[in-house]
Every structure is written in C-alpha cells, then in structure tokens.
Specification:
Number of helices: 8
Order of helices and strands: HHHHHHHEEHE
Distance between the termini: 27 Å
C-alpha cells in the first residue's frame, strides 16, 4: 500500500513580515528610479513588486487567521484562509503575467532609449533583496500552498529583475532594446504555468476533492480487510487544508457487536488509516444489517 505521511511545518510569520518590508523598499526605490530614468521596465517591475507586497500581506494575514482555534460559530476555525489566499494570489499572478506579456509585446515593437545605469543599479538591488526574501520563506513553501504562492511571487521577481539587469547591460553596451521584453515574455509564460498548477491544487481542496496522493481503492481495501467489517459505504475523503485530511464512512459490521467492541474496532481502524495514508481525522458510523444505499461513494 502507498504510504502517505504528513509532516507539519510551522510557518514563520516573522520571516514573512521581513519579506514584506524588503518588498516595500524595492517598490519605492523602483518607482523613484523609474521616474528619474524614464524607464518603463523599472516602473513595470515596481508594479510587479507592489503586487507582491499585497500578495505577501494577504499571505501573512491568512497565516495568522489559520492559526486561530475554532469556535461554536466556526467549528473548523479559519483553516482554509490560507487555501483561499493561495487561490487569490495565484490568480493575480496570471493577470500580472498577461499584463507583462502585453507590455513586453508593445515594448518589443516600440523600444525606447532610457538611462541604463538606473535600470542596472536598481535591478541589482531588487535581485539582492528578493533573493533574501526567497531564502527566508523557501522552507515554508514546501508544505503550504499559501506560502508557495508567495514564494512564486518572489521567485518570479528575482527572475524579472535578472531580466531587467540583463536588458540594462545590453542597452548600455549594445543598444539592444528588444532583449528586455523578450526575456520578460519567457518569465511571464513560466509564471502562468506555475500559477495554473497552484490554482488547480487549491481549487481541488476548496471543492473537497479526494487528495491525489491517496488511492481511494486502497483505503477501501484497508477498511474491509478487518475481519469484523462486512463492507463500507457513503465514504467521503477530503482535505481541510494543506495538512489535515479527513475521512467519513459508514461501516457495515458482520455481527451485531456491542458499542464497546465497535468503538475498539473503529479506533484500531483510525490508527491504520492514519499510519498508512496520513488521514488525520476519521469519523465512522457503525451499522449492522442496515437498509442504507450500499454504494461506496453515495450522497
């Protein structure tokens, strides 16, 4: 059977806050530099970085909300705040990418001479600060969709800034003004590809699809392999957030066992599902000689 184990990673809100500050510095410096140099590339990059500030603030707030405990009105708390943030940020990234492609095509056919020194200098500053931001939240991005969306924003910024610097150097030495928009198009296409994957993943969680990493047939086999269980029906498997996988099912027992025995069997089954598939929370309805619809997947 396939093993599926979740290792919870505590996201560092402090690191995320530092990246917000660094991106505010980048944005302000590029706005000033873009105005002084007349560089559309710098102003476009500043807009990109401004969107990052917004994305990082959303990610930061969602991270804080997700840590809140449940209440009587919100029994799951705000567990899905980060999934919503990931979906929103990934969607914004696609719109930014489309805008960058539009601007790049326009710049490709209408190149303008600019003060390249400003472009190179502020591009290098952006690379350094964005690279620091990427390193700060790299570990958090592995097991958290919300942080992965923020990480993608920052990683794309590094790539965009490299393109800006490369474009600045080529413009300074060779007056090849068409290089910058060409590189920007490739970056935008990469951004779309990465964002679409994140949108599909976050949407699957919000739609309560079964996790792709778990084979439902293997879960059914694990349940029915217990000698006391005749069959399983009305099975639902979904993700609450990045880490918490939930399962609920009706268990049809072979014999009319008492409540204590059914509880022991349910507890043993819950442990098997947790250890084998990483299912954090299982809820079972124990039945005997039931007249329910016996379809495994039923409403």
């Amino acid at each position: 059977m396939s093993g599926h184990h979740h290792h919870h990673h505590e996201v560092s809100g402090k690191n995320l806050f530092i990246t917000i500050i660094l991106n505010v510095i980048i944005t302000l410096s590029q706005v000033v530099g873009g105005i002084l140099s007349g560089s559309l590339a710098l102003l476009s990059d500043a807009l990109h970085n401004l969107s990052d500030v917004v994305a990082l603030v959303i990610a930061y707030v969602a991270n804080k909300l997700a840590k809140r405990t449940g209440t009587q009105e919100k029994t799951f708390g705000y567990k899905r705040a980060e999934i919503l943030a990931a979906l929103f940020n990934a969607s914004v990234l696609i719109f930014i990418a489309i805008f960058l492609i539009y601007e790049s095509v326009h710049k490709f056919f209408n190149p303008e001479a600019i003060n390249s020194i400003w472009v190179i200098g502020l591009g290098l500053l952006s690379i350094i600060l964005n690279a620091a931001s990427v390193l700060l939240i790299k570990d958090d991005a592995h097991g958290n969709m919300n942080m992965r969306a923020a990480y993608l924003h920052l990683l794309t910024d590094v790539m965009t800034s490299v393109a800006v610097v490369l474009g600045g150097v080529l413009m300074y030495y060779y007056q090849l003004f068409w290089i910058d928009p060409l590189i920007s198009i490739f970056i935008a296409l990469y951004l779309i590809k990465a964002s679409v994957g994140l949108i599909k993943e976050s949407s699957a969680v919000l739609m309560q699809f079964a996790p792709e990493s778990i084979n439902v047939d293997e879960v059914i086999l694990s349940i029915t392999s217990l000698p006391e269980i005749e069959s399983v029906h009305h099975l639902h498997l979904w993700q609450l957030d990045d880490h918490n996988i939930h399962l609920e099912a009706h268990l049809d027992f072979k014999e009319n066992v008492n409540l204590e025995v059914s509880t022991q069997i349910s507890s043993a089954l819950e442990k098997i599902l947790h250890d084998t598939f990483g299912i954090e929370h299982s809820t079972f309805q124990c039945e005997y000689n039931s007249t329910h619809n016996r379809a495994v997947i039923a409403h």
